[in-house]
Amino acid sequence: MSYHGAASVAGTAVRVHLSGRWEPVDGRYHWAGRIEPDPQVARLLRSGQRDVELRIADRTRPARLAEVDPWGGVRITGVGDPPWPEPLEE
């Protein structure tokens, strides 16, 4: 499963690209991805804030900021239910 679209990180509107997988070793769902370049989010990470909340629509999940990439995007990771809505079944 994956999600590409609008989100909010620590109250800042952003665009994200996320995907996830079930990890059989620990039995939990792991998701991760990239926040498109945003100076406010990069500033949060550089100031030492790593633990944030990621909000997509009405779903909020705890997440962790990892690093700023060379293009100014920020890597984000999380464990547990994915923050994006379930896809509609056909």
Summed over residues and divided by their number, the pLDDT gives a mean of 92
Low-confidence region ranges: none
What does the overall shape look like? globular
Write the H/E string, N to C: EEEHEEE
- Give the total of domains: 1
Helix content: under 10%
Q: DSSP strand (E) fraction? A: over 45%
Count of helical stretches: 1
| Gyration radius, rounded | 13 Å
Secondary structure class reads mainly beta
How far do the termini sit from each other? 15 Å
Largest sheet: 6 strands, antiparallel, barrel
Strand order of the largest sheet: 1-2-3-6-5-4
Find the count of extended strands (DSSP E, 2+ residues): 6
Essential attributes:
single chain, 56% strand, mainly beta
